[in-house]
Fold each of these.
Amino acid sequence: MSHHFEAPVAPVEAFEPPYYVAVFTAVRTQNQSGYSETNARMEDLVKDVPGYLGMDHAQTPGGLSITVGYFRDADALTEWRSNAEHRAAQKRGRDEWYQNYTLHVAKVERSHGFARA
């Protein structure tokens, strides 16, 4: 029996539309040197962007990684996209960590959620 504590898993809440999502899907390379530290830094840094709402992340057993970032408006997305540290991390990702990736940006027009009591 494991005594390792894990925080409860829950999706980001459903926000009042409209808002924006950035869906980043990727397959990583074998070289992951420095990835975990950079990823943790990006997760901390994005929280400082006015209009950032939250993030969901999942990974399939086959290695497909999916990250969804939620932003109140297009300006928040633009600020995150143009952040200097984020841009440097993107470059390093293309140079070292990602075999391939896609980014989809969408405006959410409908949103709802459910949570068992």
Amino acid sequence: MTRTRRTATVLAAAVALLAGGAATPAVAQPAAAAAATSCYGGAESLTYHYSASAVEFGTYTTSSRCSDINIKLNTTASGVFLDACIVFVDHTSLCNHDNTYSTFGPQWATVATDVKDGTRFTLRVHAYDTDAQVVPFQLAY
């Protein structure tokens, strides 16, 4: 009889643990992958239309969703790139990285790194060449 009571007690404890959600731990994504998914998941879709001069998008304000400002061109056309930079509007009217543009393509890439939450900025874009007539892209910040 004692053995049956002990088994019943162990089973009752196991059922209580299962009911409390301690059964199977969830499989967690690596921290970097989860952060990237959350950052890119909130990306804004924008479209660049060719212009001889630079085009500005924004003013935007960074959040805790991303620690960087990222861009990705959404085009399947080969050879289409955009030159872009970030202007931190509360501090300057010039582009980051010593007032230079960087060239971006169809993969996620960082335009500005380690940007504090609450920072106001614009994205300044110009065509890499005349192939960039109408270019949809995403901005994650």
